[in-house]
Amino acid sequence: DLPIRIFHWLLVAGFFTAYFTEDDLLPVHVGAGYLVIALLIFRLIWGFAGNRYARFSGFLCSPARSMAYVRELISRKAKRYVGHNPAGAAMILLLLLSLALTCASGLAVYGADQGAGPLAFIGDRHEKIWEEVHEFFANVTLSLVGLHVLGVLLESYLHRENLLNAMWTGKKKPD
Length: 175
Description:
Elements: H1 2-21, H2 26-49, H3 63-74, H4 86-114, H5 127-158, H6 163-169
Helix pairs in contact: 1-2, 2-4, 3-4, 4-5
C-alpha cells in the first residue's frame, strides 16, 4: 500500500543519509537517525493497523518456512506471492531489528558523546563501546540491505516480474 511504499523509500533515504554522513555532518546524521526512528515506530504501528499485505500477521512465518522458501527459490520451484514471500518476511524482521539496534546504539553514542538526545544522561564512560556497537549494527544493516536487493533481483528474474517497479507503483500482477 501507499504508506508502506512511502515508508520504504524514506527509510532507504534516511538510512543511507545517516550511513554516509557519520561524524562529518553530525546534525544531518542525527536528523536522519531520528527520521529512521520515526519510520520504525510508524512501521510497528502499521504492522498491526495496515492492510492485509502490511500487517505482520499477513506475512510473518516460522524461520523454518523462510529457509524452505529460500531452498525452493534456489531450486527455481518457489511459489509466487502477491504480498511478501517467506524470505522477504524474514528479511523485514531482520532489517527492522537491525535498524532498531542501530538507532538505539546511536542514541547511546549521541548521549555519551554530545550529552544530547533522550539518553543525554548516559555519560561518556562507555562511549567507545557504544560507538563500536553502533557501527557494527549499521554495517549489519548495510549487509542485510545488500541481501535484500539481491533477493528482489533474484525473485524478479525467477518470477518474470519487476518487483522494483511494484515497490514504486504498488501494482503487481494478481495470482
